[in-house]
Design goal:
Layout lengths: L1 H6 L2 H14 L21 E6 L4 E6 L2 E5 L4 E6 L4 H9 L1 E5 L6 H7 L9 H5 L3 E2 L8 E2 L4 E12 L4 E12 L18 E4 L2 E4 L19
Antiparallel strand pairs: 1-2, 1-5, 3-4, 4-9, 5-8, 6-7, 8-9, 10-11
The protein binds flavin mononucleotide.
């Protein structure tokens, strides 16, 4: 009855009911896979390391926010990455958020090592000094998170670098007249199952599920 009300189409309803039966919880057996990193989508950020004179950049998806106050983040790197050695030594890095315009650079920096090539020079990227760390930030990035490592934990294939966010800088081009940052205008990207995607249509704002509609008051 409920579904008929939503669709308003008898035929369509029958189809939906058939599908529901098949996939209902406790119905058909689930496909089971061995343990893996199936959490998607993930970010694809550009992590800079080193100094203004000798800077490397690599793409990282194993990253995220882990604490609001103090602001803390992490990156997880394989020990064989050139960036791993640099960050392990200096205990600093910058997370540079990526955009549609930076997608090619993100892919390139994720397949080429700084051991073989100066990726920044090759891609024509521009470095700007950071405020809180010696590691430079990427000028092309809309937001840069300047990070200082507080802990390094070998986990297995990857080593986890837990870090304090010491400062954040942003490209003023994305500030509106009220000073609100409009990241959507920067066309952010993410990574999922080996493919890059530009973030799409907004489908709701924080708390929209419980907010009363104006015309229902
Ligand atoms: C989208 C994407 C995400 C990646 N995420 C990670 C990651 O989280 N950790 C990691 O160790 N390597 C990751 N890589 C691989 C490194 O970026 C790649 O090995 C790179 O060449 C390392 O550069 P480096 O040797 O100059 O540090 C990723 C690659 C791509 C394309």
């Amino acid at each position: 009855m409920e579904r008929a009300h939503h669709t308003g189409k008898g035929e369509h309803m029958k189809g939906e009911q058939r599908r529901e039966k098949k996939t209902a919880p406790g119905g058909e057996a689930r496909v089971r896979w061995k343990p893996g990193t199936m959490l998607y989508p993930v970010p694809a950020v550009l992590v800079t390391s080193g100094t203004m004179e000798r800077c490397n950049v690599c793409t990282v998806s194993w990253t995220g926010t882990i604490c609001t106050d103090p602001a803390m983040t992490y990156i997880s790197l394989r020990p064989e990455r050139h960036s791993h050695g640099i960050i392990n030594e200096s205990r600093e890095f910058v997370i540079n958020l990526t955009t549609r315009a930076l997608a090619r650079a993100a892919d390139f920096c994720g397949v080429k090592s700084g051991r073989e090539i100066d990726k920044i020079a090759h891609l024509g990227l521009h470095l700007i000094p950071s405020e809180h760390v010696a590691v430079p930030s990427l000028a092309e990035s809309p937001v840069n998170l300047e990070c200082r490592v507080t802990e390094m934990r070998p986990l297995g294939s990857h080593h986890l670098f837990i870090a304090r966010v010491m400062g954040v800088s942003a490209d003023p081009r994305y500030l509106d007249r009220k000073g609100t940052f409009n990241l959507q205008a920067a066309e952010p990207i993410c990574y999922s199952h080996g493919r890059y995607y530009q973030l799409g249509r907004e489908i709701g704002r924080f708390g929209f599920s419980v907010r009363r509609k104006k015309n229902m008051r």
